[in-house]
C-alpha cells in the first residue's frame, strides 16, 4: 500500500472510511482494548497519532463522521470547475494520487480538511457529545463590546480547544518529517484552522422590562461552515507559489514579482495540471461526462469545461413542482409536473 506522505492521512485514508461506515458503533464502547486494537491497525499513523487515537476514540469517531461535511463543502466550492474535489473509492485515499502533488488544489484540500476537524470537534464539544470537552470555560463573568456590557452565558464554542487538538493530531506526522512538503502542509493546515476562528460571532439574548435589553447574555458561536469554505476558496484563488528558503525553515516567493505569503495565505510548490483528461499519475479524473452549461462563458461553460472536445446533448425528463397554490392559513399545495430539459455533457478523450 502506498501511504500518503501527509499528516492527515488518517482521515483521508480508506481506513477511516471503513472506521466510520462499516465498523459497528458499539466498538467505541468496548473500552481501552477495543480502541487500541482499532487504532493499531489504521495504516499511516505516527506514534503520537496512535496514542491520541487510543486515548480519545470518541473524538476520532466525531472527526470521521465530520468528513462528509468538509468534503461536501469542497465539492460545493469547485462544483463548476474542471477539478471538482472529486473523490474515489478505488485508491488508498479519498483523492487518489492528487495528494502526492504540491499543487494549489492540494493546498485547499489540506486547509479545508484541517478547518473541518476544528469545526467538527468544537461542535461536538458544545453539543455534549464528548467527555473530554464542553463549552468554553473561559467565557464567564462579564465583558463589554461596542454596545456596552454583557454577561457571559449560554454555550460558547470551545474553538481554542478544538484548534489545539487538531494541531496536535493533524500536524504530528508533518512535524516528524520536516521536509519541504511537510512545511507546505503545516502552513495550509494552520491557515485552515485560523479560518474557523476568524468567523466566530458574538450572539446575545436580551433581558429587561418590555424588551428593553437592559441586560444581555452573550456567547461566542462559530459561523456556518460555508463562510469558512468561501474564505478558503478566495485564498485558493490568491494562493502563493513558493520555494523553501535557504535555511529550510520557511518560504520565499517562487517568483520575484510574487508577494511573500502571509500566515493566512495558501501556499503551493508546483503548477496544477489542466484536469482536462484522465491521468492517473497526476490524480486528474478528466472532465469527460461532466455536465456543462452551453450558454455560459465561465468555467462551467461547455467550451471551458470540455476543453474544446465538444459535448453531447440529451433530453431528459425532470419532475418539478408547479401550479402551487396558497391555502389559508398555512399550507402551499403543488402539483408534480414533468419537464423536458436538455442536458449537455462533455465528450470523453478520443
TrEMBL record:
Biased composition (Basic and acidic residues): 137-148
Main location per the UniProt record: secreted
Lineage start: Eukaryota, Metazoa, Chordata, Craniata, Vertebrata
Start and end residues of each stretch annotated as Disordered: 128-148
GO terms for cellular component: extracellular space
Subcellular location: Secreted, Extracellular space, Extracellular matrix
Purpose of the protein: Ligand for members of the frizzled family of seven transmembrane receptors.
InterPro entries to which the protein is assigned, alphabetical: Wnt, Wnt2, Wnt_C, Wnt_CS
Keywords: Developmental protein, Disulfide bond, Extracellular matrix, Glycoprotein, Lipoprotein, Secreted, Signal, Wnt signaling pathway
PROSITE patterns found in the cross-reference section: WNT1
Signal peptide (residue range): 1-25
Keyword RNA-binding attached: no
The keyword Hydrolase is assigned to this record: no
An MF annotation (GO) of this entry: cytokine activity
Pfam families the UniProt entry points to: wnt
GO biological processes: canonical Wnt signaling pathway; cell fate commitment; hepatocyte proliferation; neuron differentiation; swim bladder development
Top-level taxon of origin: Eukaryota
SMART domains: WNT1
Protein name: Protein Wnt
Family: Belongs to the Wnt family.
